[in-house]
Amino acid sequence: MDPFMQTALAEALAGYNEGGIPIGSVLVKDNRIIAKGHNKRVQENNPILHGEMDCLNNAGRIGSYRNTVIYSTLMPCYMCAGTIVQFKIPKVIVGESRSFPGAREFMESHGVEVVDLDLPECYELMQRFIKEKPEIWDEDIMEL
C-alpha cells in the first residue's frame, strides 16, 4: 500500500480507537505529508469535522493548494468535495467508495482527478464500524 494511504488508514484507525468514525485523510505536497487528520465528529461533537476537513484545518494556511494531493480512506462527501474544489486541489486518492459513493462525479465535473483504489483494508474497517455503530453512521451520512 502507498505510504500516504497507509498514513491515512492509520488516522482512520486512530479515529476508530477514539470511538469515532474511521475516516482518515492526508494532504501531500512535493511528495511529502504536510498535514493529516481524521473524522472527529463524535469526539469533538462537531458536525463538520470530517476527515478531510480536519486534515485541511491541520494544514493551516499554505497558500496555493494547486500542487497538492489529498488522500482519504473513503470517498469524500459533498461538503468535503466542495472544499476540495474551492481550494483547487487537483487530485484525490481514495481508499474505497463501496461503503459510501460520495461526490466523485461532482469533483470530476470540476476538473479534480479522482483515483479510487478500492482497498480491502479501508472497506473492511468501514464495514466493521457501520455494523457496530449504525446509528452514528446513519447520522454521518444524513440517513436518519
Explain the overall architecture.
The protein is globular. The protein has helices at 3-17, 51-59, 78-86, 104-109, 120-132, 134-140, and strands at 24-29, 32-38, 68-72, 91-94, 113-116. It is of the alpha/beta class. Strands 2-1-3-4-5 form a 5-stranded mixed beta sheet.
Summarize the structure.
The chain has 144 residues and is an alpha/beta fold. Helices cover 41% and strands 18% of the residues.
Question: Characteristics of this structure?
Answer:
144 residues; alpha/beta; 5-stranded mixed β-sheet; 6 helices; 5 strands; 18% strand
Write the layout of secondary structure elements.
Layout: H1 3-17, E1 24-29, E2 32-38, H2 51-59, E3 68-72, H3 78-86, E4 91-94, H4 104-109, E5 113-116, H5 120-132, H6 134-140
Parallel strand pairs: 3-4, 4-5
Antiparallel strand pairs: 1-2, 1-3
Helix pairs in contact: 5-6
Order of helices and strands: HEEHEHEHEHH
Number of strands: 5
Poorly predicted parts:
none
Strand order across the largest sheet: 2-1-3-4-5
- Distance between the first and last residues' Cα: 34 Å
Rg for CA atoms? 14 Å
How large a portion of the residues is in β-strands, by DSSP E?
A: 15-25%
Mean pLDDT figure:
96
- Helical percent range? 40-55%
Q: What can be said about the biggest beta sheet?
A: 5 strands, mixed
Which secondary-structure class do the elements indicate? alpha/beta
Number of H/I helices? 6
Overall form: globular
